[in-house]
Specification:
This protein is an alpha+beta fold. It contains 9 helices and 22 strands. It has 3 domains: 99 residues, Elongation Factor Tu (Ef-tu), domain 3; 154 residues, Threonyl-tRNA Synthetase, Chain A, domain 2 (2-Layer Sandwich); 127 residues, Diaminopimelate Epimerase, Chain A, domain 1 (Roll), CATH 3.10.310. Strand 3 and strand 4 form a beta hairpin.
Length: 418
């Protein structure tokens, strides 16, 4: 049964603003509540609503905001500004008194991730002296950046084992506001970023942190924490992790992949890595052989194109239009053509709704290709560029031949100047 909270009393507008309650601090498990709309605002196409009391968590501290419904209208996000919580809505709800519903799946997911992060950060600090510099809950996984620069796989596994051991102890998680006297007595993992209204999230005997986020009541509700990957950054190390239902979903995906590979490769789970490594080595060797043969064929093709090309001012001009060729092959063909002395390549290629062009010249032809290539590109609405010796680009297939003719015109003009 959904946990529902009801307002206790009505106030005047000025009193409501002063008394606006941010109830997500008090109870993260309320899924539905009643509230009174204090104001409606629309700015730059964004509609916002301020309530006299709210359980919608506003984005902050690395945790995304809650979503849900105010009346019949969807809450897209919530944010806090000058002490007020603004609810961004798809449209303004009707009436003054409204029934509000939190998207519980999203809320509980964030509670799992955020409490899991507190445990992870606490363990990393105690085991390695690694402070948590930043934290964020993403759409698919969460991240923290810590001051330790490098982790071995063995160290990561040890951290995971310790964190999950604390999860299975089902430790109590409490939150409360603390005054300066209490703050001075608590073994805080990090210093508060504010000087008043300091809220502490305490994991029984393990972690004490200033935090405004939503959390589970017991660590057991986190379910499990899995570190997916880690990498070095300029600030330390960045760890990507998942908790709870996210971890379950991640395991399901990976298990499906493993089952697929065992069937395709006719291999046991423990032999998949070695099998794939062998396939990769075979593929690389085959690719080297293919590239060698392709290069040999393209060189022969380029030599034949030069032999059959027309001479203009003592320079071979290779003008050739293709369909469906690999653009990399076209590029390589242009380089092999212009490897021959006194040669120019003007090559075009149509690939469905895309066209490629290569304009190049050999080292002993005094033509600055990129001096006129922009004009060639404009002819077929193309984009590209290059050097004085070699240019390439892509544009409209219907105007490719016009672009190639334009390039030919420029080349002949330059040869005439020699």
């Amino acid at each position: 049964m959904n946990k529902i909270a009801h307002p206790v009393q009505s106030y005047s507008y000025s009193e409501r603003v002063k008394r606006m309650d941010k109830l997500f601090y008090e109870d993260s498990y309320v899924k539905e509540f009643e509230a009174v709309i204090l104001k409606r605002e629309e700015k730059d196409g964004e509609k916002t609503v301020v309530l006299d009391r709210t359980y919608f968590y506003p984005e902050g501290g690395g945790q995304p905001s809650d979503t849900g419904k105010i009346g019949s209208k969807s809450v897209i996000k919530a944010y806090e500004k000058k002490g007020e919580v603004y609810h961004v809505v798809e449209d303004f709800p009707e009436g003054e008194r409204v029934h509000c519903v939190i998207d519980w799946d999203r809320r509980f997911d964030h509670m799992q991730q955020h409490t899991g992060q507190h445990l992870l950060s606490s363990v990393l600090l105690k085991k390695y002296g690694a402070d948590t510099e930043s934290f964020s809950i993403g759409e698919n996984s969460s991240h923290i950046t810590v001051t330790k620069e490098f982790f071995t796989e063995e160290e990561i596994h040890e951290v995971e084992k310790e964190v999950n051991g604390l999860i299975y102890k089902n430790l109590a998680v409490k939150s409360y506001f603390a005054d300066e006297k209490l703050i001075s007595k608590l073994p805080l993992r990090k210093k508060p970023q504010v000087k008043e209204n300091i809220r502490i999230v305490e994991i029984e005997g393990i972690d004490y942190s200033p935090c405004g986020g939503t959390h589970v009541k017991n660590t057991g509700e986190i379910g499990i924490l899995k570190i997916k990957k880690w990498e070095r950054t300029n600030k330390g190390a960045r760890l990507e992790f998942v908790c709870g239902f996210r971890a379950l979903e991640d395991y399901q995906k990976k298990n499906s992949l493993v089952n697929f590979l065992t069937q395709v490769l006719s291999e046991k789970e423990e032999g998949i890595a070695e099998h794939l490594q062998k396939l990769l080595e075979d593929y690389r060797e085959a690719k080297r052989e293919v590239n060698f043969l392709k290069e040999k064929i393209l060189k022969e093709e380029a030599e034949n194109l030069v032999k059959k090309s027309e001479l203009y001012g003592g320079i071979h001009i290779v003008y050739s239009l293709y369909e469906g060729r690999d653009p990399e092959d076209l590029k390589m063909l242009g380089k092999f053509v212009t490897a021959e002395s006194k040669s120019v390549a003007i090559l075009g290629n149509k690939r469905g709704d895309v066209a490629d062009i290569v304009v190049a010249r050999s080292y002993d032809v005094d033509i600055v290709v990129n001096g006129f290539f922009k004009e060639v590109l404009r002819t077929f609405d193309g984009k590209g560029g290059g050097s004085a010796q070699f240019c390439q680009g892509g544009g409209s297939p219907s105007r490719l031949e016009l672009a190639m003719d334009k390039a030919l015109k420029f080349v002949i003009e330059e040869i005439n100047k020699m």
